[in-house]
Amino acid sequence: MTTPRRILGTASPLDVSALGLGCMGMSEFYGTPDEAGGIATIHRALDLGVTFLDTADMYGPFTNEQLVGRAIADRRDEVQLATKFGNQRAADGSRLGINGRPEYVHAACDASLERLGVDHIDLYYQHRVDKTVPIEETVGAMAELVAAGKVRHLGLSEASAETIRRAHAVHPITALQTEYSLFTRDLEDEILPVVRELGIGLVPYSPLGRGLLTGAITTESGADGTADFRRSAYFPRFQGDALAQNLSLVDNVRAIAEAKGATPGQVALAWVLAQGDDIAPIPGTKRVRYLEENAGALSVDLTADDLAALERAVPRDAVAGDRYGDMSHIDA
């Protein structure tokens, strides 16, 4: 299998695999952590040409970067390594808030480099916008990391159109990471036009609707037992009537997928990939078999009729529930 490549950003371009790998669930949130399985999944991803890896300091906290670092220790040159700062946590996991202060930017980067065991980060994101610190100050500090050779390219995550413009004026932004899938399309109104105007790539996280679009989640069970954070009130789309409504939409996708000889998740990923060559989604998994299934999306050819059918199958306003129970941390 040859995984195609895509270029994120024009002013500061980064060549990545068209499909990336989100590593968060290997350490936290989506069921029981699985370090061995995670490392095996990363190794298989690299063998398949899925070389764009995504982590963050807050995952674990801190342990996911260490896991990724161990997995790529002898294959660093193959990897486009992305990590994030800004969602500050203590070692016991407690949340300390969003931090975009310049001195913290430098300290967080140094700590991530040490945990990852690398001398540079290919793409360094501000995980969430600190609304108490001017974005110019935060990105100014991030630009200093580029000048120091610690970081190659800069990114933002869940930033508003206005914030993106202001940040890009300080230093070229290579990529915006934000949620985008058949279930989450609000960025199409303002954010996607702005990033395309400025020549910024898009890295969709949760391109499978946090697993809903795979068809593996039902009203009775999550994908991985009771430890799965998706079952908490923090994710309204997984609750009660909203879940039932959303699973009915998944059934619509399943019907289209069956006609294509594919899985619902593969078709959902193929839809994201079809939205532009400046898009590189990062579906997350800690299992080799799901990684391989996701990679199969690259072989799913969606025709114009297929794309129109998916638009009818999942109308933008048909998805029930906000994507987070508390949206206050999203820059709007």
Question: Describe it for me?
Answer:
This is Oxidoreductase. Keywords: Oxidoreductase. The chain has 332 residues and is an alpha/beta fold. Helix content is 36%, strand content 15%. Helix 6 links the parallel strand 10 and strand 11. The chain is globular.
Structural class: alpha/beta
Query: What is the oligomeric state here?
Result: single chain
Number of strands: 11
What Rg, in angstroms, do the CA atoms define?
19 Å
Main β-sheet, spatial strand arrangement: 3-4-5-8-9-10-11
Mean pLDDT: 94
Give the low-confidence spans: 222-227
What order do the helices and strands follow? EEEHEHEEEHEHEHEHEHHHH
Strand residues, percent: 15-25%
Report the major sheet. 7 strands, parallel
The 3D shape can be described as globular
Number of contiguous helices: 10
How far is it from the N-terminal to the C-terminal residue, by CA?
A: 40 Å
- Helical residues, percent: 25-40%
Keywords: Oxidoreductase
InterPro entries: AKR (IPR020471), Aldo-Keto_reductase (IPR050791), NAD(P)_OxRdtase_dom_sf (IPR036812), NADP_OxRdtase_dom (IPR023210)
Pfam family, one: Aldo_ket_red
Protein name: Oxidoreductase
